Amino acid sequence: MISLKDMKIQTKIIMAMVLLLIFIGLLSFWASYMHEKKSLLTNMQHNAVILNHALIISITNQKSIAEKVNLQTLVEELSLTEGIFGVWVIDNSSRITSATFREQAGEVASSYLISDALQNGYYVSGFDTKLGEQVYSAIYPLKKGNKILGAVEVAFELREYLNAQTSHRIHLAAQMKRDIRIMAESLSSSIEKMQYINELIHIQRLVDRLCAESEIISRIMIVDDNSRTIACNDLSRVGTIADDKGVKAVINGADIYTRLAPSQKIYLVDMPLRIGDEFKGVVSIGYDARDYYTHLSEIFRFGSLISGIGVLMGILLAFQVSNPIIKPIQRLTDVTKKLARGDLTVKASVSSRDEIGTLAIAFNQMAEDLARSKEEIYQYSKTLEQKVKQRTQELELSNQELREIQNELMEASMAKSEFMSIASHELRTPLTSVLGYSELLLTRDLTESQKKEFFGFINEESVLLSKIIDDLLDISRIESQKAFGFVKKPVNLADILLKDTKYYSRAEIGRRIITDMEENLPLVNADEEKIGQVIKNLIDNAIKYSPSGDIIAKAFVKDNKVWIAIQDHGIGISQKDIPHVFDKFFRVKQKETAHISGTGLGLAIVKYIVEFHDGELDIKSKLGEGTTIGFGLPVLKDRDLNE
C-alpha cells in the first residue's frame, strides 16, 4: 500500500480539495439543517401553544359559565395569554363594558373596525393602534338570533411580526389571523353563553368543532386529574386511561411538555387545565407535522445534491489546479536530466507567469549562465592577452571619467566661489544702504517727511536683504537634503495667485499685473505657503527682467494639471541659456542684465518646490519679446479627498 508521502503531488492535491469540499459541504448542510429544524420546531411549538391556550381558555370559560364567573374576570384571564395585547367587550352602543385595562370600562370605543362589526354584524379583523402601539385586532359580534347585542375585540402584539424578515411575515400574518379569529370567536361564544344561558355545551362538542374547523390540528384530548380521557376527537379514547408520558409529566407538575411523534407525524403539546388555581386536568393538542417532515426531507435531498455537486466540482477543480503545476514540473525534470548530461542548449518552456513559470525562467537563466560561463572560460583561455588589453582600456576609461569628475568638481568650486562673490555683493548692497540711511537718521536733523522717506528706504532694503538670506537658507537646506517641512492640503491655486497679485498691486511696482484665470479650477494637494513662494519668485523675476509692459498671470487646466503661468514682455532669454535657468547660481549673462542684482537661486528653489509636489515646469522665451514661466500641479482626485 502506497503511503501518503509517496503519493504524487496531483493525487495529494485532489484528495485535499475533495476532503475540504466534503467537510465544508457537510458542515454547511448540518448548520442549515439544524437551524431549519430548530426554526420549524419553534414555529410549531408557538402555534400549538397558542391553540392550546385558546382551547384551555374555552374550556375554562365553560367551567366559569357553570360557576357564574363575571365577565371582567374572564377578560383578564384571557389577557394573560402569550401574545395577547388586550381584550375588550363592547355593547351595541360602542361603550366598553369590560377590558384588559380596567380604566377603559365605560369609555366609548372609537375604532372603525368595531363600528363595522356592530353595523354589519360580521367578523372584522385588521391592523389598528391601541394605547400608542401597533396591534392586530379581531372583532367578533355578539348576537342573539339576528339581533346584535355587542362585540368582542381581541388584539395581538406585533413585535414578532415587525421584527421578522419580509419573507417570513406572510406566514406570521396568516398564522396570526387564524389564531386571533379562534380567540375572538371562542371569547364571543363564551360571553354569549354567560349572558344567555340556554344550555351547557359539552366539552366534547367543543373538541369536535375545533378539530373540524382547523386544518392543522390532528388531535385534541382532554384528560382529568386522574389521567382519564374525558373528551377526544378519537371517541375510542374517551373513558380510557391516558398512558402518555406528556400527560404524566403535566400531572406531575410540568407547565408544558412538547414532543414529536415521528410515526404519526404530529407535534404534541400538553398543558395543565386549571380553573383559578385549582388543577383540573390536562389539555393535549396534536399539531400536524407533515409539512415539517416534508420540509426537512427536501432540505436533506437538496443538501445531498449540493454535496455531490461540490465533490464533483472539487475533483474537476483539483485537476484544473494540479495540471498547470504538475506538467510544467515534469517537463522541467526532463530538461534537468538533459542538462545533467551536458546539453547546455536545452531550454525549459515557459507557459505561465506564476511560480512555476518563474522557476522555468530561472532555470533557463541558469542554463544560459552555465553556457556563457563555459564559453567565457574557453575564450578567456584563448584570449588572455586580449583580456589584459581590454582591462587596460577600461582603466584608461575610468581615469578619463575621474578626470571629468574632477573637472566638474572644479567647475562646481568655481561656481560656488562666484556665488560667494555675488552673494557677498548682493548682501553688501542693501546692507550698505541700511547702514547709510540709519547713520543719516542718527547724525542729522531731518524733517518728518525725510525721516519717513529714509525709513521707507531702510524697510525696502531690509526686505531685499531678508529675501536674499531666505534664498541662501533654502538652497542650503536643498543641498544638505533637509526637508522644507511641507504641509500639504487641498488648495485652490487661483486663490493663492489672486492673493499674491493683490500684494504686488498694493506695493505699487509701477506696472499692472493682469490676471487671467479659468473659473471653477479643481483643487490640488499642496503646501499653500511654499506654492505662494514659487509664485512670488516668478513674479519677482518678471518684474526684475521686464523694465516696462504689463505682467500677465494665468491660471488654467491642461493635461489633468492646474497650471500657473507668469508672462512678461521683457528682455527674454536666449535658447542656449534656457536649459540652465533652473540651475543653482546660474544667471543670464547679457548686457541688459549687468545692472540687475540677484543670486541665481530663485528659480532653483522654484524647481525644487514644484518637483516635490510632483509638478511640472515649463518655460518659453524669445530675446527682446519676453518670457513665460509656468508650473503645473496634479489635480486632486475624489478618492484623495475622501481619504
List the SSEs and their pairings.
Layout: H1 9-66, H2 71-79, E1 84-91, E2 96-99, H3 112-120, E3 124-130, E4 133-144, E5 147-157, H4 159-163, H5 166-195, H6 203-213, E6 217-224, E7 229-232, H7 245-251, E8 257-261, E9 266-275, E10 278-288, H8 290-340, H9 355-382, H10 384-443, H11 448-479, E11 489-491, H12 493-506, E12 513-517, E13 524-526, H13 528-544, E14 551-558, E15 561-567, H14 602-612, E16 616-622, E17 626-634, H15 638-642
Parallel strand pairs: 12-14
Antiparallel strand pairs: 1-2, 1-5, 3-4, 4-5, 6-7, 6-10, 8-9, 9-10, 11-13, 14-15, 15-17, 16-17
Helix pairs in contact: 1-5, 1-6, 1-8, 8-9, 10-11, 11-14, 12-13, 13-14
What does this structure look like?
It is built from 15 helices and 17 strands. It has 643 residues and is an alpha+beta fold. A hairpin with a 2-residue loop joins strand 14 (551-558) and strand 15 (561-567).
